[in-house]
């Protein structure tokens, strides 16, 4: 009776077992890289047999794809959750989103390695998965910037901040955040707030000028007002 009870106690719901395997896979892929990681290592870290990993997730490629999707969804959810308070100043909304982004990537370095390094360098299928996440991030940031443009008071003529400007700035901001997260995760003692502050200091001042109608001109190497 004792052994039967022990057997029952070891049984886990499928979703719990899958989460264990996915956690182990993210850690292994993030630390070892996609090519070097083996299903044996992942199974051992998860505390299950290799056949069970294959039973749940079919192949190494499908397992890696599932890891990308899960971690991309988690990152997007963290950023969106960081900007929950409506009616606050546009810069505070962007600050909240950036802080949430850097906090999540710092707290989940293996997941960030999977998304930022591994997925982008091991085949078009994986790169496409990450590209989808990036498009959603850019879309979210674009929405924040549009709100900021509408809310920013200016004593000058209304800024001609067209759709291409907004999307271009959002692309640049997301790209800068990705690069900064990679640096922050490899540099000791860089906090999420410090990383977010660095990017705000770099981006928001220039963005404020753009919203105020200022443009840099290559013709005279100066900022001109349109």
From TrEMBL:
Keyword DNA-binding in record: yes
Entry's transmembrane regions: none
Organism lineage string: Bacteria, Bacillati, Actinomycetota, Actinomycetes, Kitasatosporales
Domain of life: Bacteria
DNA-binding region: 38-57
Gene3D superfamilies membership: Tetracycline Repressor, domain 2
Keywords linked to the UniProt accession: DNA-binding, Transcription, Transcription regulation
HTH tetR-type domain sequence ranges: 15-75
Coiled coil: none
Protein name: TetR family transcriptional regulator
Record's signal peptide: none
